[in-house]
Amino acid sequence: MKEKEMGKEMNRILTFDCYGTLLDTSPARLAIEQIADRHGLDPKESFALYEKCENEQMYEHDFRPFDALTPEVLRSMDSELGVDVFEKNVDLLWNAYANFQPFEDVLPVLEQLKADGWRLIVLSNTCPQLMERHLKALNGLIDKTLIASQTHCYKPVLSFFEQAEEKFSLDKACHIHIAAGYWWDILPSKKMNWDAIWVSRRPQDNQLEKEQSVPFVHTFADLCGRIQDILHA
């Protein structure tokens, strides 16, 4: 993507996934594990069940906004385990969601990217209540957002990405998508013919890195350099 060939240098856009990319989501896992441990349930198995039930509620049912979906996820967990534990603790989980904070390497890099003239846009499987909190946590550095409550679908459904491209005219911009979710973001990006950078924070991703031909970084500290690699490839 050579900017001088594309003639798009004045319209530079970076789109980001939010959770696991910009914000650390581990408090949600800890909340589920804490609820499980208090009630004599296996914490790790409970979190695995949470992820399973969340995927089922997101992708096997009609669309519901994230704030309506979360209690259904916990209700499904209770049903599968034959307990009355998780749904009544929805406030504990929701508080964990609301208080997600940026990874320590994120804000300095976002500040540098803004200074370099990039528009920063978040594409996220979330709802307005959470996004409002999380934009504050990101120090107001994000220019625009597109969330599931607007698209009426959850990533990796391709319609989410198609709506983003149309809303922000990404096909007319110098654009790169940046995300930690390989299946949720990077693969759909490839289907959209977007340039993308995979933020591979997890050690277990290392083997997949060797098998896939997509640019990646382990930390945001390396992001600016990787962006330049793509621009001048």
Please tell me about this protein's structure:
The termini are close together. This protein has 2 domains: 3-23 and 102-231, HAD superfamily/HAD-like (Rossmann fold, 3-Layer(aba) Sandwich); 26-98. It is built from 12 helices and 8 strands. The chain is globular and about 55 Å long. It is 51% helix and 14% strand. The longest helix has 17 residues, at 43-59. Strand 4, helix 7 (128-137) and strand 5 form a beta-alpha-beta unit. Residues 2-6 have low confidence and may be disordered. The protein has 233 residues and is α/β, with parallel strands linked by helices. Strands 5-4-1-6-7-8 form a 6-stranded parallel beta sheet, with helices on both faces. Strands 2-3 form a two-stranded antiparallel ribbon.
Mean pLDDT: 93
Helical content, roughly?
40-55%
**Quaternary structure of the protein:** single chain
Q: From the 3D coordinates, which CATH architecture of the largest domain would you assign?
A: 3-Layer(aba) Sandwich
CATH class of the largest domain: Alpha Beta
What is the β-strand count? 8
Radius of gyration: 18 Å
Label the overall shape.
globular
**Secondary-structure element order, as H and E?**
HEEHHHHEHEHEHHEHEHEH
Count of alpha and pi helical runs: 12
In CATH terms, the superfamily of the largest domain is HAD superfamily/HAD-like
Q: What structural category characterises the helix and strand content?
A: alpha/beta
Low-confidence stretches: 2-6
Widest β-sheet, arrangement of strands:
5-4-1-6-7-8
Residue fraction in strands: 5-15%
Write the CATH fold name of the largest domain.
Rossmann fold
State the domain count: 2
- Taking the alpha carbons of the first and last residues, their distance comes to 6 Å
How many strands, what sense, and barrel or not for the largest sheet? 6 strands, parallel
